[in-house]
Write a sequence for this structure.
């Protein structure tokens, strides 16, 4: 087992005041010297899709426990269902876990590594009379299973001779039978109130190529059997999963009972509430539909709740880890407000993002008393939160662009931006005053004429005169004309999974979740690379997209500066 030294340091916000229930269990196990006081967790993704923010929660939890308790974490692909699995997913999952900042033990592991062992163990169970080959159809099996209040009826194959089951199981493995005609079932308790204990299926026939074992197998173990045994083979101490597996726990334990020495090493399953986020879909099946039906551009579309989508959108690993830490670990299902995730990314980018000025909706301003042909390089601060990020030069000239919204011809009293006669500060430049509003034949404003006060260079008046507003701007002839993709939430209702009769989650897609515009951004971004993050002052956080080309800078809006949805809700 690799030691925690290999793990990256994780910044947790503040020292925890209280332990969550999983930490309490682990600390008690350590105190009791259970499993020699060791902690080994695992993250067990099924390689049938890209990881999403819910998985990120599980990753932070499992790897976090490994780090905090001097232990470590295995990455184990739960690849027991060859039909839906793909190597593309195996690769993306590893990339995403690494990007989040975690390191697993040694090489990634695969449940398929244990197919031989699992098979041998199943043979042992048959020999002990604890498993049998059943030939019921799915319908018959369902009819025999009973209900939670009514015991099941035994399958006619339940008491077949051990020799017969052994022979049939070997022949199933050799591919002699068709899919669905035979299965291996554990012989447990048909009267159990827990339906999972009523002779659950251990193996079924699947004639599909597996991405790792190829054509070697045509029988595949079921999750309940494979998962707990894989935990056992690996020496996992705490097997953390989501709440829907609580009812599977007796079965997890039954399988272990069949091989664990009493008092010896034994993994323990602990359940926590899965992460549900408002305005967000997390089912992999539905995410796959969004991709396949082209509602989004791919798994890493910046509107997707996938880790690769958030990465492309400009989220940082720290912002996601802080979010996971902040929401904690719950025992009961709940819905987390997506604005908490947005808060976490703002908080982190505020510390890290370079400030630049970018005008998304331009209005030309001519500074009539500024010499024609002149331009200057003014000093601007890269990040007021972090002086070590230094300063840069911004080009200023007679013609500039400001944001259309920063001018109002008929301004109310509390409008402190530009209006006729009202003086404002151009960030890092000068005070200006609007003298003329130029309009076209339709009465639309085409440009503003302003005068500037040369004495206010840098944005302060030597006579101590104050202005109430500061606005951003860019040099009209010296800037980058960039493509900007303005993203909004992909769904326009809090719980997109809940759809009216006859409709599905797609009916809740927000038609305005992507708007593409051209914007004028100061020159500093010209040297940016995909993934570089900026704050466009007053406008939000933006990052350069992988689609950027040498003569076309492309930005994704990561998040607005404020929670605009909250404002709408409070109106
Ligand atoms: P599937 O329906 O394909 O099984 P899944 O969401 O369970 O989907 P897995 O790849 O099996 O996906 O999940 C890997 C791990 O991530 C599991 O331990 C699972 O419990 C955990 N996980 C999945 N979704 C969430 C979620 N929303 N919140 C917390 N943990 C999650
Ligand atoms: Mg699963």
């Amino acid at each position: 087992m690799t030691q925690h030294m290999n793990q990256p340091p994780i910044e947790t916000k503040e020292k925890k005041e209280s332990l969550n229930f999983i930490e309490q269990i682990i600390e008690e196990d350590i105190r009791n010297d259970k499993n020699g006081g060791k902690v080994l967790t695992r993250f067990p993704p099924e390689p049938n899709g890209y990881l999403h923010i819910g998985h990120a929660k599980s990753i932070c939890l499992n790897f976090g426990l490994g780090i905090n308790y001097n232990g470590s974490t295995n990455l184990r692909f739960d690849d027991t269902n060859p039909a839906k699995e793909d190597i593309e997913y195996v690769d993306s999952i590893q990339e995403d876990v690494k990007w989040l900042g975690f390191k697993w033990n040694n090489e990634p592991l695969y449940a398929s590594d244990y197919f031989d062992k699992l098979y041998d163990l199943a043979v042992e169970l048959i020999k002990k009379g604890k498993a049998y080959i059943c030939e019921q159809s799915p319908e018959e099996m369902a009819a025999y299973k009973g209900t939670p209040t009514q015991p099941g009826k035994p399958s006619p194959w339940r008491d077949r001779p051990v020799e017969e089951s052994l022979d049939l199981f070997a022949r199933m493995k050799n591919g002699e039978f068709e899919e669905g005609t035979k299965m291996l079932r554990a012989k447990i308790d048909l009267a159990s109130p827990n339906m999972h204990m009523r002779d659950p299926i251990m193996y079924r026939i699947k004639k599909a190529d597996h991405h790792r074992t190829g054509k070697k197998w045509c029988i595949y173990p079921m999750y309940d059997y494979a998962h707990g045994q894989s935990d056992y083979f690996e020496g996992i101490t705490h097997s953390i999963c989501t709440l829907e597996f609580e009812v599977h726990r007796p079965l997890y334990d039954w399988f272990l009972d069949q091989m664990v020495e009493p008092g010896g090493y034994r993994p323990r399953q602990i359940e926590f509430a899965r992460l549900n986020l408002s305005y967000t879909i997390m089912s992999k099946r539905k995410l796959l539909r969004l991709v396949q039906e082209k509602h989004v551009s791919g798994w890493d579309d910046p509107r997707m709740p996938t880790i690769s989508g958030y990465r492309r959108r400009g989220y940082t690993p720290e912002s996601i880890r802080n979010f996971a830490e902040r929401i904690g670990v719950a025992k009961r299902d709940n819905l987390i407000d997506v604005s908490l995730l947005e808060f976490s990314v703002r908080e982190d980018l505020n510390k890290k993002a370079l400030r630049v000025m970018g005008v998304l909706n331009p209005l030309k301003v001519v500074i009539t008393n500024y010499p024609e042909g002149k331009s200057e390089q003014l000093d601007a601060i890269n990040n007021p939160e972090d002086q070590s990020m230094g300063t840069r030069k911004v080009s200023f000239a007679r013609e500039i662009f400001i944001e259309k919204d920063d001018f109002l011809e008929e301004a109310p009293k509390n409008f402190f931006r530009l209006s006729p006669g009202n003086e404002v500060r151009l960030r890092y430049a000068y005070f200006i005053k609007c003298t003329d509003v130029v309009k076209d034949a339709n009465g639309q404003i085409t440009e503003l004429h302003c005068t500037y006060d040369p004495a206010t260079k840098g944005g302060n008046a030597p006579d101590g005169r104050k202005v109430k507003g500061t606005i951003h701007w860019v040099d009209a002839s010296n800037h980058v004309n960039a493509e900007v993709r303005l993203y909004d939430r992909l769904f326009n209702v809090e719980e997109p999974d809940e759809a009216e009769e006859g409709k599905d989650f797609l009916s809740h897609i927000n038609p305005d979740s992507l708007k593409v515009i051209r914007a004028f951004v100061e020159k500093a971004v010209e040297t940016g690379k995909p993934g570089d993050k900026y704050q466009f002052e007053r406008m939000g956080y933006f990052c350069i997209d992988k689609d950027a080309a040498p003569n076309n800078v492309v930005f994704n809006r990561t998040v607005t500066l404020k929670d605009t949805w909250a404002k709408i809700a409070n109106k």
About this structure: The chain is about 25% helix and 20% strand. The mean pLDDT is 94.
